[in-house]
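Example 9 (inverse folding). The structure is encoded as follows.
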């Protein structure tokens, strides 16, 4: 049964106070009540359309949450001040001291640090496994495992998670499957493949303009109520609330996400195909040589491309640095972390976004120090960008199949 996330977002119409085509922005932290009884009632249970205090929910954040909930085919959603806010509050909703998490070994460095360094201080421990090995995942699950955690397309190795298989493993062990879908919004719909909770860093493709940090959680009504519960909900009590003016601008950007994804995807496919054809070591799920190309083809929603992120192995750290400096000089894009921007961004994850992961674990997972992660932009002429990159590769002394000495 095909599912079209872009149409779900497009059909979400909310009017402003005067029939404005964009919903009005709530500029209030608190809300008046016509009677004290009504306020008491709202403290006891949620009432549709009634707001109490903006740390709990505010109308503008609710509009963005509703659009994301439709995009992910969930029942309910909450938006947050960052992707890490979404991830940490989700895990704190699901786990208590003594519980365990099983997590893919190829994940964003901040998530790794949360699981490896911070959560153990509260009695929640994590086993990191190779998600491409289902037997290893099964073996890591114990009676204490509450969460199986993965990224739909992992950062930065671009491993595709077999979501139906992971959901089956999690559920057989009485755990929940939590999926970070930051790299593949609209392309993958994890809840439709059995996931229980989806989180996003909205900072990336969904917002697309690299002007703010934000996140979201999409799941069942019951889960979002637990997340927001005024007595025990991590979102309500830790307070990573998104500012309403940012929520309004992200909602506007969400409406062009499908078009941007197509352009990011076709540009990335062009560049990856061109470099791979010349013999460079390129990793991109749209290439037939990618080990999970067929899996992604089976799981993805058609029409949004294969994503905007690819990697090129420059051989070693020094060569990678030389190449990135030249690419910035030649206006290929910016030497910067993050992704999903309209310009190309590149970085060496081993020395930036994955530096929290110890070298031995990075190497065991295949994250080499010369690996450059590219988030391909919306370039109007990708053939010209490819030419510029080839000139930079030559000048940096990086040739196909040849590992430069540094
Ligand atoms: N998840 C993934 C896959 C990421 O790449 C990142 C950030 O780079 C995050 C989560 C964290 O998001 P944020 O920076 O919005 O907190």
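The amino acid assigned to each position is listed next.
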């Amino acid at each position: 049964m095909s599912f079209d996330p872009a149409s779900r977002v497009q059909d979400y119409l909310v009017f402003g106070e005067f029939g404005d085509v964009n919903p009005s922005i709530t500029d209030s932290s608190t809300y008046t009540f016509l009677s004290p009884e009504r306020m008491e009632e709202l403290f006891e249970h949620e009432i549709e359309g009634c707001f109490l205090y903006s740390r709990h929910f505010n109308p503008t954040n609710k509009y963005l949450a509703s659009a994301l909930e439709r995009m992910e085919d969930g029942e309910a959603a909450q938006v947050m001040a960052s992707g890490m806010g979404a991830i940490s509050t989700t895990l704190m909703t699901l786990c208590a001291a003594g519980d365990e998490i099983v997590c893919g070994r190829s994940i964003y460095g901040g998530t790794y640090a949360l699981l490896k360094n911070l959560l153990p201080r509260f009695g929640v421990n994590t086993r990191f496994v190779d998600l491409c090995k289902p037997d290893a995942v099964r073996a890591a699950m114990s009676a204490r495992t509450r969460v199986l955690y993965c990224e739909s397309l992992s950062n930065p190795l671009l491993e595709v998670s077999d979501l139906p298989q992971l959901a089956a493993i999690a559920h057989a062990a009485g755990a929940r499957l939590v999926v970070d879908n930051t790299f593949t919004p609209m392309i993958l719909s994890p809840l439709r493949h059995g996931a229980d909770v989806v989180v996003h860093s909205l900072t990336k493709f969904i917002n697309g303009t690299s002007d703010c940090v934000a996140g979201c959680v999409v799941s069942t009504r019951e889960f979002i109520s637990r997340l927001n519960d005024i007595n025990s909900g991590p979102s309500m009590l830790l307070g990573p609330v998104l500012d309403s003016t940012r929520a309004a601008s992200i909602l506007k950007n969400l409406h062009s996400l499908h078009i941007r994804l197509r352009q990011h995807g076709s540009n990335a496919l062009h560049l990856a195909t061109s470099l791979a054809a010349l013999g460079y070591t390129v990793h991109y799920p749209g290439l037939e040589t990618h080990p999970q190309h067929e899996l992604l083809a089976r799981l993805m929603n058609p029409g949004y491309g294969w994503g905007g992120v690819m990697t090129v192995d420059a051989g070693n750290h020094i060569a990678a640095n030389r190449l990135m400096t030249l690419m910035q000089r030649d206006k290929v894009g910016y030497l910067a972390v993050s992704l999903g921007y309209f310009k190309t961004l590149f970085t060496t994850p081993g020395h930036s976004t994955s530096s929290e992961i110890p070298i031995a674990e990075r190497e065991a997972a295949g994250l080499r120090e010369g690996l450059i992660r590219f988030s391909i932009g919306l370039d109007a002429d990708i053939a010209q960008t490819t030419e510029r990159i080839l000139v930079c590769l030559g000048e940096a002394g990086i040739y196909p199949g040849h590992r430069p000495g540094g």
